[in-house]
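Journal club side-thread
Mid-discussion, someone asked how the predicted structure for our own chain would compare to the paper's figures. Pasting it here so we can look after the session.
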Amino acid sequence: MSTIIETKEIKYHYPVEEGEEIRLALNGVTVSIEAGSFVVVLGHNGSGKSTLAKHLNAVLIPSEGTVLVDGLDTREEANLLDVRRRVGMVFQNPDNQIVANVVEEDVAFGPENLGIPTAEIRERVDTALKAVGMEKFALHAPHKLSGGQKQRIAIAGVIAMTPKCIVLDESTAMLDPSGRQEVLDTISWLNREMGITIILITHHMNEAAYAGRVIVMDRGQIAMDGTPREILSQEEKLRSLGLEAPPTVELLYTLRRSGWDVPLDALTVDECADAICRALGR
């Protein structure tokens, strides 16, 4: 696979008042993201995960180091529009991204600002709404939709910009379990069927099971990087980083400490149940 995003030793600190101590929100982060991959970035509050997300489409520019998007340096102002066309952002609160009173008008907002011809905008809007399963709501008022539906509209607005990558910065944090599942199903489909690179920033540990790769941030640095099974099965390491393993892993870890011969990498409920049944000889 080709690389769509590459960061090289990036450091970042937020503005400080004179005399205040500078604290690095990112401290030498080097990472490559393959095109077409699904990556989850985990970390406790203040770990740097959202700061990293904002660097991936030039919402923030590194204090030191380099971010390349499809080979484009985000520090070059002339590249910003092309960078943001390639990498779309979906934020935590969908209400902050919805700007129109009708769903289809909201999805059309981005392409209209790019000067896309009307006929192509119509096609993009229809395609984007269908991709997120919201085509039946095209003429609805966004404020009457559920949280999960609003977030899917926000994602459709990004899809209409035809990005190669979508970064979701805590986009499931304000949703109930049903809404989170709607968003997870949507982005999994976009990754699997449309080949869009997905980078999901989250503190919900169970969401990591949807990814092919998990990155754990701590104190502005990458603390862990591997597959979901490799990362989520390390209960003690996660706990040391201020995170809890998914409930399935916690249960298996407790059983193992009690002498049960069970694996720690059974992430889903079904896998966990099967592992316990095998341990019981059933």
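Post-session note: DSSP finds ten helices and ten strands in the chain.
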